[in-house]
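Intended use. Records such as the Cupin entry shown here are meant for training and evaluating sequence-to-structure methods. They are not intended to support clinical decisions.
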Amino acid sequence: MTPQEIESRIVRYGDLRPCRTAFIDAHTPGSDQKENFTIIGGGVSESPDQHVHIGIPHGFNIGAAGQPPKCRNSMHNHRTAEVFFILSGRWRFFWGEHGDAGEVILEEGDIFNIPTNIFRGFENIGTDYGMIMAVLGGDDAGGGVIWAPHVIEDAKAHGLILGENGKLYDSKKGETLPDGVSPMPLLTQAELDKVDCPSAMQVIGGYVRRYLDMVALAEDAPVKVIGETGIIRDKPGFEIDFITRACASDEMHKHDRPSVLMPVKGHWRVDYQGGSATLAPGDTMSVPEGLMHRAVPSMTGEAALYHIIATDDAAGATWQG
């Protein structure tokens, strides 16, 4: 492939186009300063204003959320896997219908494979604008977001209504539900009773991995973070590897499906048939299937990246209870 073709598959951090009306809590105080980014695939945005940077199917979606201090994402649920790693800042993740069932604090480089069928939310508890990168299972990411009932009610009080078609309508802009479209129904108590509510020990022990622990494990070989044989044993429809300077290989290789490189520390040079490109933290590169390539640190100092590739496993439930 030509350098121009490859560059079209790289989304630079500085070129990310945010959407500030992506979800139903976009007007709700405390959540109204969020910026959502859809990097690869359509994601689960409820807004027609959301820009998709790369539409090529990968078997998963890549997105990001940027938030200033004290800004939070409201309680929601997904039908497929949702994995976050911290690019910058300090973040609190919490779960349960009202966010009071458990919590964990994550720092830069940490990764969290959030199980399906639990309500989850997160907030930036750092002192500066922070960014978290996300991987969602499946090309259609499960068809959308399931919101806790109080989130839908709070949003309505601030002018946003979610239709049963999964689209947002903003009364502040004079929008109303189209004829034949009803509001998204609230979950019934019977449906809420079927949502899992695991303990902090269950979630943190099984689904959270710390950056420094992974660095220590990556002395000799890349760390399989999420996968059937991973340090998080799961099959959500994709695998994630963690690679550092210590275990980066000079050997050219290829995959039979598109893969994604996402640096979290340092600069990386990606050599491929036809040229090379340099990636920095926050950049996302889609590597075409069948393309011989390698990724190696291009500068001195700390260097780490995440590598994501789809598997043939269904992008289904991860929580094992």
